[in-house]
DNA sequence: CGTCACTTTGACCAGACGGTCAAATCCAGA
DNA sequence: TCTGGATTTGACCGTCTGGTCAAAGTGACG
């Protein structure tokens, strides 16, 4: 198997294992708190061996972040401008919540990066993220203009969706501490968020002024 | 000035300076990222001198957290069970948002601690925090029963308030990246949050069935 | 002025950490 | 079986970090 230009089967497998381990450790300890030794141990490799696949600790971190933003924005990207507005929005909210539920490590890694001021992500945020959000915000604005959704600022509406969904992943300890052991945060969140956003999104005055003769 | 039992004027002043500096550094770099030297420099002291006032780095951190939770819960504590429900809730939301706006370092410090699983705060969360939230949640539940507020789960309603208000402080870089430089996140947030929660809180059916003869 | 508790500091230490390197091991293909 | 690149590793290095310590400085009060 002469290596034409890129990865050996082992390289592919090892890199994946390292990223998986890195996600675990970075999400739990943060960038500064994570140690190369710790990641290597979690990946079942020796430290020098890990450094054979990624030159630095930072390289692992940025590799993770790179793949992350895409995944994180997928639900928003999937918002269909030609669908039914309320259905589309509620589906987006649900997708986002399930993403946070099923990938809490990714959510926390992302949150940690932003909390620290996004030193490794600044560019992505103000370019890729902003473009996508602006595009979707204008779709939402159109829906509001058409009277299909209650009027509000689309950007802040999106923020509210992010804030609420990620809260359950990023602040899970707090949520659990408050709710106690008997309750199921995620199941409740799913129901409550739908109720919450139905209220927020439902247009208040039905846009039919002349059907009461 | 023989020291009867507690602090010298210098001790008071130095401890305060150290906590202030610690807040700065911990909020920006996280617990692991912060260095004793860094905090000492920010406080204008030498490292051993700082360690003369606080025995360890952790001691500074927990001292900060201790004072923090109280401050952080004040707006919720101030919720008046005998006030007008909608007014009280909107006032609470506004207080919480202004707190996040005026004390973003505190907000981020808190967020970082929770993100990491609240290793130094577990107790406080599941005791003090939980008690207060349970108490206020039952007040809110009573308001809902009386038809003064739309029905929903009070705990999750509180979560939604926390999530939305703190989002603007903790994820400020992201918010700014998306909104661009021309817009003022905090001013907009104030207006949007009021609109948002008016919708969420306003009871849907006015509880007066017999005043249309 | 002398005392004594309070305060400050330079020098130092042990451990942890990110990263390097040369040597060893593995393994697919000839 | 031999070969050469891919892979793995133990030993090592310089730096950083949390924390210690003995000694020096400071100032209020007798």
What's the short version?
The structure is a homodimer of 213-residue chains. With 213 residues, chain A is mainly alpha-helical.
Helix and strand topology:
Two copies of one chain form a homodimer.
Chain A lengths: L8 H25 L2 H8 L3 H7 L3 H21 L7 H18 L1 H12 L6 H24 L8 H17 L1 H8 L5 H17 L12
Helix pairs in contact in A: 1-2, 1-4, 1-6, 2-3, 4-6, 4-7, 5-8, 5-10
Chain A binds a DNA duplex (30 and 30 nucleotides) through helix 1 and helix 3.
Fold and architecture overview:
The structure is a homodimer of 213-residue chains. Chain A is 74% helix and 0% strand. Chain A contains 10 helices and no strands. Chain A folds into 2 domains: 1-55, Orthogonal Bundle (Arc Repressor Mutant, subunit A); 65-201, Tetracycline Repressor, domain 2 (Orthogonal Bundle). Chains A and B meet through helix 1, helix 6, helix 7, helix 8 and helix 9 of A and helix 1, helix 6, helix 7, helix 8 and helix 9 of B. The structure holds a DNA duplex (30 and 30 nucleotides).
The total strand number of chain A stands at 0
Superfamily (CATH H level) name of the largest domain in chain A: Tetracycline Repressor, domain 2
Oligomer: homodimer
Beta-strand percentage of chain A?
under 5%
The secondary-structure element order of chain A is HHHHHHHHHH
Q: What is the end-to-end distance of chain A?
A: 81 Å
């Amino acid at each position: 198997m002469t290596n034409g230009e890129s990865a050996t089967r082992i390289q592919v497998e090892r890199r994946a294992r390292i990223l998986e381990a890195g996600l675990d450790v970075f999400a739990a300890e943060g960038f500064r708190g994570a140690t190369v030794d710790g990641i290597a141990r979690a990946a079942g490799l020796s430290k020098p061996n890990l450094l054979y696949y990624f030159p630095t600790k930072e390289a692992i971190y940025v590799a993770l972040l790179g793949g992350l933003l895409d995944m994180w924005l997928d639900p928003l990207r999937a918002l269909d401008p030609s669908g039914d507005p309320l259905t589309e929005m509620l589906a987006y909210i649900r997708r986002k919540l399930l993403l946070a539920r099923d990938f809490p490590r990714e959510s926390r890694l992302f949150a940690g990066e932003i909390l620290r001021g996004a030193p490794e992500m600044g560019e992505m945020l103000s370019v890729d993220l902003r473009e996508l959000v602006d595009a979707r915000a204008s779709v939402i604005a159109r829906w509001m203009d058409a009277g299909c959704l209650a009027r509000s600022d689309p950007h802040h509406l999106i923020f509210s969706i992010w804030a609420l969904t990620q809260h359950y992943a990023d602040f899970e300890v707090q949520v659990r501490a408050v709710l106690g052991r008997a309750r199921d945060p995620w199941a409740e969140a799913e129901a409550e968020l739908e109720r919450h956003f139905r209220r927020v999104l439902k247009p208040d005055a039905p846009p039919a002024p002349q059907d009461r003769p």
